[in-house]
Structures are given as structure tokens and as C-alpha cells.
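Anyone able to model this chain together with NAI?
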Amino acid sequence: MAEDQNFDVVIIGGGPGGYNAAVRAGQLGLKTAIVEMRGVLGGTCLNVGCMPSKALLHASELFEAASSEFASIGIEVPAPKLNLVQMMKAKQDSVTALTKGVEFLMKKNKVTYFVGRGTIAGQGRVTVTGNDGATQTLVTKNIVIATGSEPTPLPGVDVDQKQIVDSTGALSLPSVPKSLVVVGAGIIGLELGSVWRRLGAQVTVVEFLDRITPGMDTEVATAFQKALVKQGVSFKLGTKVTKAATGAKGVELTLEPAAGGAQEKVTADVVLVAIGRRPFTKGLGLETVGVTTDQRGFIPTNHFKTAAPGVWAIGDVITGPMLAHKAEEDAVACIELIAGKAGHVDYNLVPSVVYTFPEVAWVGQTEDQLKAAGVQYKAGKFPFTANSRAKINHETEGFVKFLADAKTDKVLGVHMMGPQVGEMVGEVCVLMAFGGASEDLARTCHPHPTRSEAVRQAAMGVEGWTMQA
Ligand code: FAD
Ligand code: NAI
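re: yes, here you go
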């Protein structure tokens, strides 16, 4: 066993939670170590999540545009041919460049990077077990758990990463399946379902609830589903999968109405199980510091402090949206608290984006939530059909919806569907972080011609003076 090494902070997990915590700790002059067992930094997000999925979404969107849109705007090219091997290579090259970038950030901020499994071995001690089985012990004032999450399994539907895949398998299919059944109409299912539909698969999405994307504003979700159906995605809502049998002809799924009833069989070349993610704490040694997880496996925290002194937790392994930028927020606030500063995260201001076409983006409260809470609100809405940039780009599907307090005009939530709205939601986050009113945005000059003008026009709508529709 190597000699003990001493740190102010040891972070277990090198994802967006862990690596951002390491950067901030380094910036604040804390002697910091990060332990990652994957052999590469970047976590789920960079390796098998946000980044590879966005690479495939981007490439498949261009493929589809070249197939079906170029001709209508006067660009005549032969029908594009898919080179899936090259598409996967381009994805992997980008991922590798990004993970190397994170490694560089560790060096830049004087963070020591240990490759291996980190196990808490009592208060202030973390054992690192390398791939070769060698162990070393790190002694530290603070431990930050950032071990993230893993796909939730579906009983009766065993993932083999060939015919039945989870998101990781779906990011690396060796060929385009003729038919793909996606179990779960959540963000992963719809993003990766979109990728494979664009590349030629017949996609059917089976969802337990009677709606898609729970958590999304219902009006937006309804419009979003219509857009996906128009693209050729089929939905079976209010349906559960009870069994899967794999064979030479594909996967045979047994479906049943969620409320019970007659069974139905569906076959597919590939099945993607995307019914959510669960926190990952396997082999972490929580018991050595008396920390227990809640019923769903999350580590309970109060301002990132666990029940054990000097042990903190951030990101997907604690409650809150399972998003990379949320993990990053947690990371900064947690490290600032460790450094004696005033770290804080406003979870109401964590935006969500679905990177399909069209994209969906939102921040704050949905109309459903405001109604349920009995909040008096006013709404302003603006369709992209009336936005000049959307019109000249032939991308007019979708709208922006502003929700503001009926008395004070304070913005309570903003919901958008349209191309690249993920890039547009940031200005609303800033507005809301400053407690802004819809009028603040309505009276702020926006560049013309941009889609962002639709955000302004929707804000004007709250006070009834939308000018361009
Ligand atoms: P993770 O990124 O999961 O990192 C945890 C790391 O800890 C892992 O690398 C793991 O190997 C390591 N680890 C675990 N236990 C140990 C141990 N004992 N010792 C050492 N290392 C350990 N979010 C977005 O915001 N935008 C998106 O577009 C987006 N797309 C996604 C697409 C997919 C397909 C998936 C699956 C997820 C996506 N997410 C997205 C979610 C995002 O990836 C997660 O919210 C984010 O990665 C959570 O960060 P984290 O640091 O908490 O955990
Ligand atoms: P999700 O929670 O978004 O959606 C899961 C869906 O599966 C829900 O609609 C749920 O009702 C349904 N479901 C649950 N059990 C089911 C069953 N037995 N049969 C049929 N349907 C069932 O989870 P998903 O899509 O797996 O994504 C996991 C997490 O990853 C998300 O919480 C999200 O935060 C994150 N993510 C974020 C992305 C982004 O920000 N763009 C992209 C991809 C993932």
C-alpha cells in the first residue's frame, strides 16, 4: 500500500459534479484530489450522455436535412449515404477531445487525479483501488461524493446491449435497426429515438403515463408530441411492458394497458429501455461513516452536507433534476460552503432542454404547477410562424410562452418549443435570477432578425401588446 496522502478535499467521481467541484476547489486554493474509476474524466455526461447524444443528434439532423430539405431551398445533391462508422468515429473523437480538456483543467487547477475506485474508509479517509488492484489511502478534511447515476432497470426486460439496450448501447449501435421500440417517453427516449428515426429506423415509443415527458408543461408536451408524430414517431401511451423475449427475429415485447387489460405483442429489432436513472452508490463505503440512502437510493443532504461531518454529496446522487448543469451548480455551491463562503443553488432556476427537432426548453414553473398552487398568473404567447427569422429558415413550428404573476408581473416560468430554443432560454434564466418582470424583457431591445425576438414578443403578450402577431 502506498503512503497516505493529505488533502483538503477528495472528490469521488469525475463527472460534471466532480470535475467542476475540483476546478472550483483548486481555484479557491484547496489541496484537492479527484478519484474516477472509469479511466477517463467527464462522467456520464461526456462519455455516455450529453455529449455523444448531442453529437449524434447534430449529425443525424444534418443527414435528414440533406435528404429532405436541401432540394426545397435550391440545393440539389444526390441522396446522402449514411456512413455510420464515420458518424460514430466523429462522435468519439469529439468525446475524447472533451475528456482530455477536463484532464487539462485538473492540471491547470493543481488537482491530483487518481484513476481507480474510491471507497470511503471512515471519516476523512478514502481508499483508491486501481485497476491493477493496488490500493492507496487518501487522508482528507472533506469528502465530496459525486458518483452520479445509472440507468434504472426494467424488471422482465434485461439489457444485453445488443438487442435490448440502455442509453449507452443506443449511442453505439453498429447498424441502423429497421425497427426500434423505446420504452419511456422521457428525454433520453425522445432524443435517441429521434437520432435513429432520422437515420432510418421505424420508431415506436411505449410510455406508462398517458402523456409524454412528465415535468414538461402540458400544452408544450402536447404540441411536442404532435411534432414528433408528424416526423413519423409512433406512440403507445398508457401502456406498460411486462415481458421481453429475444430471439433470432428480434425482440418480442409483451405490452399491457397501464391500468391492466388485454395483452398485445410487438416485435422490434432493437429495444431501448429509457425509464429514468437511479443514483449510483455501489461500493462507496457509505456505511463506514454512517450515511444511509433514502428509499430511492439518493444520499440525503442539507445544503450538500450528509449526515456525516466532513462528507458532502452533489449532482445526480442527491435529489433534484438529474442534469449536468445542475450538478455543476451543486459543485460550485458545495465547494464554496467548504471554503467558508455562501454557496447556494436556486433549483427553480435550473433550465431543462430537450435537444430534439424542434427543441423544447423551459425554466421555472409550468402552467400546470401554477394552476395546482392556485397562483394568479397572466400568459403571453408568440408563435414562430410570426417570427421573421423562423420564416425565412422554413422552421416555424413551435412557440414561446411567458407566465408572469398577475399582480406583480414577476416572471414565474417560460416555455419554448422551436429550433435551438435551448440557446434562447439562458436570457430568461438571467431575467428570473434578478426577479425580473415580463415588462423588463418586453422593453429590452433584441437583435433582428433572430428567433430571440419571439421571446420578446411573448413577453409583450403578458401585458397584451404583442406587436407582430
Ligand atoms: P456522472 O456524470 O454520472 O459522474 C459520476 C462519475 O463517478 C462516473 O464517471 C463514475 O464512473 C464515477 N464513479 C462512481 N462511483 C465511483 C467510485 N466509487 N469511485 C470512483 N469513481 C466513481 N444532462 C444535461 O444537462 N444535458 C444533456 O443533454 C444530457 N444528456 C444526457 C444524455 C444521456 C444519454 C444521459 C444518460 C444523460 C444525460 N444527461 C444530460 C444527464 C447528465 O449526464 C447527468 O445529469 C450528469 O452527468 C450528472 O453528473 P454527476 O457528476 O452527478 O454524475
Ligand atoms: P425520464 O425520467 O426523463 O423519463 C422516463 C420516462 O419513462 C417517463 O416518461 C416515465 O413515465 C416512463 N416510464 C417509467 N417507467 C416506465 C415503464 N415501466 N414503462 C414505460 N414507461 C415508463 O428518464 P430518461 O429519459 O431515462 O432520462 C434520465 C435522465 O437523464 C432524465 O431525468 C434527464 O434528467 C437526464 N437527461 C437529460 C437530457 C437533457 O437534458 N437533454 C438528455 C437525456 C437525459
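The two ends are 71 Å apart (CA to CA).
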